[in-house]
Amino acid sequence: MSYLTRTSAPLRIAARTFTSTSIAGFHTSSARLALSEDHAHTEDRAKKIDEHKSDSIEKAKTGKGEWKPELASQSEQITHAGKHDMTMEQMQKLGKDKGEKEQKEQ
User: Which residue intervals make up region (Disordered) (predicted)?
Assistant: First the structure.
């Protein structure tokens, strides 16, 4: 019995001295509605988000659901773009077309 008392006492003391407490504060972050970061400051952002969401929901109900890049962040778009078999020329053409389309909308 005395052996157990002698060996367990230092363990109890060591456990008390090395306990850690969480000192992390309260963290907050703003909720991002949708659309990628480059559309963050457009005036009709909420309207476009609702249009894309309702379109996505309607297509999902009919079984024709698709991934909508308009509702994805830029990092999600890049990840998605890396998972297809397009050539560099095709991607450049798509980028050019997208840029021209956005200029016409402004």
Answer: 37-106
Measured CA to CA in angstroms, residue 40 lies from 12, 30, 43, 70, 75 at distances of: 55, 13, 9, 12, 15
pLDDT tens-place string over residues 2-47:
555 566 656 566 555 555 555 656 655 554 555 566 666 677 778 8
Q: Is the dihedral of CA 67, 68, 72, 78 positive or negative?
A: positive
Largest CA distance in the chain: 87
In a domain? residue 104: no
In-domain check, residue 33: no
DSSP label at residue 71:
G
Quote the pLDDT of residue 11. Answer: 59
For the chain, the domain total comes to 1
